Amino acid sequence: MALKARVLYDFHSENPGEISITENELVTLFSEEELDGWLEGENSRGEAGLFPASYVEITRDQITSNTNNNGLSSPKAVTPTHTSYTSPESQRGLGAGSGGSGGGSFHTSQGSDDDWDDDWDDSSPTDAAQGMGTSPPLYPVTSSLPGRRDSSQQHQQQAKSSATVGRNLNRFSTFVKSGGEAFLLGEASAFVKDGDRICVVMSKNGPEWQEDPYPFMCTIDDPTKQTKFKGMKSYMSYGLTPTHTNVQVNRRYKHFDWLYARLVERFPVISVPHLPEKQATGRFEEDFISKRRKGLIWWMNHMITHPVLARCDVFQHFLTCGADEKAWKMGKRKAERDELVGSNFFLTISTPAVPLDLQEVESKIEGFKSFTKRMDENIVVVNVTINDFARKQITGFKKEYQKVGQSFALLGQAFELDQQAYSGGLNRAIAYTGEAYEQVGEYFAEQPRRDLAPISDLLDLYRGHLANFPDIIHVQKGALTKVKDCPKQEGELHDRCNIISCATLAEIQHFHRTRVRDFRSQMQHHLQEQIGFFQKITAKLQDALQKYDDDQ
Amino acid sequence: MALKARVLYDFHSENPGEISITENELVTLFSEEELDGWLEGENSRGEAGLFPASYVEITRDQITSNTNNNGLSSPKAVTPTHTSYTSPESQRGLGAGSGGSGGGSFHTSQGSDDDWDDDWDDSSPTDAAQGMGTSPPLYPVTSSLPGRRDSSQQHQQQAKSSATVGRNLNRFSTFVKSGGEAFLLGEASAFVKDGDRICVVMSKNGPEWQEDPYPFMCTIDDPTKQTKFKGMKSYMSYGLTPTHTNVQVNRRYKHFDWLYARLVERFPVISVPHLPEKQATGRFEEDFISKRRKGLIWWMNHMITHPVLARCDVFQHFLTCGADEKAWKMGKRKAERDELVGSNFFLTISTPAVPLDLQEVESKIEGFKSFTKRMDENIVVVNVTINDFARKQITGFKKEYQKVGQSFALLGQAFELDQQAYSGGLNRAIAYTGEAYEQVGEYFAEQPRRDLAPISDLLDLYRGHLANFPDIIHVQKGALTKVKDCPKQEGELHDRCNIISCATLAEIQHFHRTRVRDFRSQMQHHLQEQIGFFQKITAKLQDALQKYDDDQ
C-alpha cells in the first residue's frame, strides 16, 4: 500500500540519486523511514530517488515523521538552523570565528550538519539547496531546538506564579531567559531525585563543585568515513571510548551538537565548552579532519573533568549508549523532556551549611569580571601573535633557510668544476650542508602545527569559556540586585540568591583550576616540542659537520 | 736659528691645532721634522700650529724634507692619492666594495691613510682639505708610489733591449705592464742570490710552489689607539706577533698598505691577498675596528701560508722589524730599491727539470678560467644570500621571537590578576617563558656576526683573489701567444714561457689548496657555531620548561 506525501516546496535535484519535486505535487514514498532527513520515493514523472523529508508532508495521519531510523535527527523542525540567541554582552571581546554563544543562551548547529560532513561527500544536497532562495527550509536539519520547549515551560511557570517581587522588564535579559529570575522568585518547581543533586562544598578557595568520585577519561579516535544510501552519501563518525565502560560508541558531529544544546539548556551557570568551529580556518594549513578531532578532544577533556557536566545523565547517555537504536532514542527523549533545566536547575544545588557573605561574593565576582576581561584581551593578542609567527615560520623562515641551503649548493657546484682528488670531500660536504639547510627550512615549516596550533586550539576553547561567563555573571548579578531591591522578602530571596552565588563561584573556581591545569600542560607541551625541534636541527647540522671530517 | 718655508698653496685651518697659511707667505718652522706629513710652525700673523708639509717648500737647501721622523711616510710626493691602475679585465666580476686591484697592476691607499685613522680622530685635517678645490695636493700622503720607479726602470730596460720579436702594441696590457713581455723577450736582467730563488716543484697535481720549510704563524692583537701631537691626533696600531720571532711589532694600516704595494709590484703572477676594505660597510652592524682586524687576520693567514709571499724579504721586514726607526728605514729603502720586481721576478724562478707541455698548460688555464668565473658568480649569490639572511635574523627573526615572548608575558600578566596560591607557580613560569623567548630573539640577532660574518669575510678575500687571476692568466696567455707567433725563436722563448707557465700553474694550485682548506674550515666553523647557537636556545627553553615543575 503506497504511502503518499504532498510536496511543500520545490526541490531541484542536483546530485545523482536525488529527484526533483514540485510544490503541491503528490509523491509516492517507498518507506516512511527517513534516513538523516531524506526520504526515498517516486515523483509524478515516475523518477525514483531521494528528496528532503522536510520538503514534504506525509498525507497519512498515522505516520509521524518522528519515526525515523536515526534517533538523533528531528527532521521536521522547519526552522532556520542558524538560530543563535546571544546577548550582546556575551559577544563582547569575541573575535571572528569563535563559536560565541554564551551560557544561558543557546546555540544550535551553525549551519546544517551534513554541510560539515559533506566536506567528504561528493554529492552535497546542501550545495543544491543553497541555490534555491530562502523560503524552503535548509535540509536536513540536525538538532532539536531547546528554546521552544524551554519558553513554553517558562510561560507555564509564569502563569502559575504569584508575583510579589517586581519582574525584570527586559524579557530578553539573560537573568530572565536562563530561569534565574524565575528561580529567585520561587517559581521553580520540580521533583529532584538524590541522583540529580549537585553539591557545592566549601574549600579554602571558597565554594567548589564536589569532585566527581568516579573520574574517567575518554579517547576520541580518528574519524572514519561512513556511507549510507548505498554509498551515495557519506559522513564522518568519531569513535569514543570512555574508560569507565571501555566500550566504543560512534558519534557524528551532529550528535555532539545535540548534546551541546541539551547542556546549555540544562545548566544556566555552568560554562559548557564550545564545540570546535564548523568552518575550517585553514590556519596552519592543518588537515581539516585532524583539526576538528583535536578540537573535540579538547572539548571532551573539558567535559569529563567538569564534576557536574561529566556526571550528568545526557552526557553519560551520549558516552555510553551503544548501537541499540531503541535505547538511544529513549535516552534522547528523556533528555529532551528533562524538567531540571533552566530555573529548575537551581533546585538541584546543595549549598554548604553556612551561607555566603553576599558582599564578599559581589567583590569576588567583580574581580573575576576584571580577570576575564584582561584574559580575553590578552589571549587575543597571543592568538594573533602565534598565528602570525606560525605563518612566518611556514613561509619566511622556511624560505630563508632554504635560500641559504641553495646558495651553499651553488658554492658546491662551482667547486665541483675543480676535479682534483683533494677537493672531492669538501664538495660532497658542502652539498650535504646545502641539503641540511633545506631540510631545516622544512622543519621550520612543519613545526607550528606541533607547538603553536595546540596553543591556538586551547585559546579558542578559552575564548569560548570567556564568552560564556558574562551571561553566567549576569545571572548572579540579577539575583543579587533583586535581593537588594526587596529587603522585606530578604529571607527566602537571600537563600535562593545564596544558591545561585554558590553555583556561580563554584563554576568560577572550576574555571581557574582548569585554566591553570590546561595552560601549564600546554605550555609544557609547547616547550617540549620546541626543544625537540631545535634538537632536531642541531642533529641535522651535526650530521653536516661530520661530513667535513669524512673523506678528507 | 729659524727655519723658513715658502707656502705653495693656500691652506685653511678648520680644526684646533692647525693654522691657516697663504700662497707665497713665508712661515717659520719650529722643526724640520715632519710628523706624518705635518709640520709645526708660525705664520706671518704670529699664529702657531700645524699645516701640511706638502703645502710648503723649505727655503734652506741643506734640509731635505725626507728626514722625517716616521720612516714609512714619503710626505713630499705631490700626487693624487687615489691612484689605482687596474685593467678593465681585472675588475670583471667585482662587486662594489671589493678592493679590486689585480695582480700586476698596483694599488696605493684608497684615500689618505689618516682619513682612515681619523675615524678615531676628532680633528681631521682631511676634512678641511676636502673643501679646498683640486689644485693643491691632498695631504698627508701616505705610501710611496711604486709605479714611478717601476716605469723608469722599464724604460731603461726597454732602451737596452734588442728586440727581435714583435712587441705588444698595447702598452697598457697587463702582459706588458707586469714585465711578462720584457722577460719573455729576454730583457730582464738582475743578480739573483740563492736566497731569492723560488722553486717550483712537480707534484702529482702538477707544478707547485715548494713548501716553506719554516712555517710560522702570526697573531694580530686588538688595535690600540695611539696619539701624537700631544693628543691632538690619534691613530690605531695593530700588534703583530709572528711565532718565529715571538716579538710583537706595531703596525698601522698604512704600513700594511705600503707592504701590499711592494708585493704586487714584486710578484706579477702571484695573487696577493687584498687588504680589508677601507670603508666600513656597517654590514652585520659589526664594530668597525673589530671588522677590520678580522679582515687583517684573514689577510695575514693568506700571507703566511703562501710559500713565496711568506718568505719574501719585504714581508719578513714588515713582520720582524721592531721599534728601531733606523732599521725600519733601511729595510724600507731596500724594499723600494729591490731589483727583482716585475720582469726580473721571473729570473728567480727555478722550474722542474722536465718542461711542461704547453698544450696541456693551455687547457689547464682554460679550465681554471671557467672555474674562477663560476666561483665568482656563485659566491656573489652566496654573499647576497647570507647578508640577507643575517639582516633577517637581526631584524625579522629577532622581532618574531620577541613578539612571542611579549605575548606570553601578557598572558602571564592577565593570569596574575588571579591571586590564588595554586596559580602563582604557573604565572612565574609563563613570565619566565616570555623572557626566554625575548632572549632567544637576542640570540638570533647576535648570531650572524658569529657564523655568517666570517663566511662573508672569507668570500670578500676570495673575491679579491678571483679579481687578481684574470691579470695573472693574462700574463701567461700573453707569453703563450708570443711563443706561438714566433716559431723560429722557439727555444729561448719556450724556456721562458715554461718559467711563466710553471709559476702560474703553481699559483693556481696554491689557490685551490688554500681554497679547500679555507672553505672546509670556515664551513666547519659556521656549522659549529650554528650547532652551539641552537643548543643555547635549547638550553634556554629547557630552563623555561623546568619552571613549570618548580613551585607547582
UniProtKB/TrEMBL annotation, chains A, B:
Q: Which UniProt keywords apply?
A: Cell cycle, Cell division, Cytoplasmic vesicle, Endocytosis, Membrane, Mitosis, Protein transport, SH3 domain, Transport
List residues traversing the bilayer. none
Q: Which PROSITE patterns match?
A: PX, SH3
**GO biological process, any:** mitotic cell cycle
Q: How does it sit in the membrane?
A: Peripheral membrane protein
Q: Bias category Acidic residues: which stretches?
A: 112-124
Where does the chain bind a 1,2-diacyl-sn-glycero-3-phospho-(1D-myo-inositol-4,5-bisphosphate)?
A: R252, K254, R292
Top-level taxon in the UniProt lineage:
Eukaryota
**Into which family does the record put it?**
Belongs to the sorting nexin family.
Full protein name: Sorting nexin
